[in-house]
Amino acid sequence: MKLYFAGCARDCADVVASNIATLLTLGENTWCDEIKVFVAENSSKDNTREIISELAEQDDRVIPVFLEDLDKAIPIREARIAFCRDRLLAEIIRDVSDGLYVPIDLDLDIASSLEADSFLEACQLVASGRASGIFPSSSPYYYDIHALRDREWSPDSAWKEINNAKAWGYFWTQLVYIRYVSSRQKPHARLQAKGLIPIDSAFGGVGIYSLSQVLNSGARYSSSELEQEELNFCEHVVFNRFLDRLFINSAWVIAAPPEHIEFRVLPAYRKAWRITRAGLGDVKRQAKKILLLVNFLF
Asked: What is the pTM of this model?
């Protein structure tokens, strides 16, 4: 079986080399007879590009895709990432049409928590035809609500709701964040016994797809929705619309990036203080506006 990792890397010199090395080792320790790591890089300010170039020179299984000044051509972040992912997928399917397509976040410390046995099991679920795509759970909480779509668990865009709430101040925005993000970040302890969890979309830092299913469906990441900044849409939601038989495998667990579950893991008193502080901040800002108005009038 062929295994094709594909990830975007920007300003991540501290983790990109170790991530790529882990992926190559992971492939060697499984049953795959071909492994390649495709890496898209766009105008990093640190030495990420130099590190990728050096790795590619040392190992022909690392295939760099260097892009220039995408920020100007595609100013909205989600649309820019979608473009990069589509470029990587195009590089993969240029010469092959079967195997497993494994998109992964190379700018986070995701690869280090990939455990060989559970990764192999997830790969086999896709290779056997039971699933078109498999995604991991995460511990201690499921973190990637941005990419998650499920009729009951996460039926809509959490970040769109948060953006809409910002006009009402920090207090309301904090409450909306709790309602649409934090409350949906379920504890892994509640998910681990559920086995394969059917969903409409997910990611969670890494996914495994049947490359033939991707090709047959015409799946792509780019969409006009991603170009509307107010929607704050996710490229994985766009891509997963083309596919069915998608599952979160609760037996495949990665470590949730701390920055994504920062509020969820706070003790209750600190959560209460953060909400209170947001409310006090709004009161202070309104008081300043009133004082300015009073000074102007009198």
From this structure: 0.90
- Give pLDDT tens digits for 268-288: 999 898 888 888 887 777 677
Angle between the N-to-C axes of helices 158-165 and 170-180, in degrees from 0 to 180, rounded to the nearest 10: 170
Straight-line distance from the first to the last Cα atom of the chain, in angstroms, rounded to the nearest whole number: 78
Q: How do residues 149-203 score in pLDDT, each as one tens digit?
A: 999 999 988 877 887 777 678 888 888 888 889 999 999 999 988 999 999 999 9
Domains of the chain: 2-156+186-262 (3.90.550.10)
SS (H, E, C) the chain: CEEEEEEEECCCCCCHHHHHHHHHHHHHCCCCCEEEEEEEEECCCCCHHHHHHHHHHHCCCEEEEEECCHHHHCCCHHHHHHHHHHHHHHHHHCCCCCCEEEEECCCCCCHHHCCHHHHHHHHHHHHCCCCCEEEEEEECECCCCCCCEECCCECCCHHHHHHHHHHHCHHHHHHHHHHHCHHHCCEHHHHCCCCEEECCECCCCECEEEHHHHHHHCCCCCCHHHHCHHHCCCHHHHHHCCCCCEEEEEEEEEECCHHHCCCCCCCHHHHHHHHHHHHHHHHHHHHHHHHHHHHHHC
Distance of CA 96 to the CA centre of its chain: 25
| 255-262 contacts at long range (C-beta below 8 A, 24 or more positions apart) | 255/109, 255/112, 255/113, 255/138, 255/139, 256/138, 256/139, 256/140, 256/141, 256/142, 256/143, 257/108, 257/109, 257/110, 257/143, 257/205, 260/143, 260/144, 261/140, 261/141, 261/143, 261/185
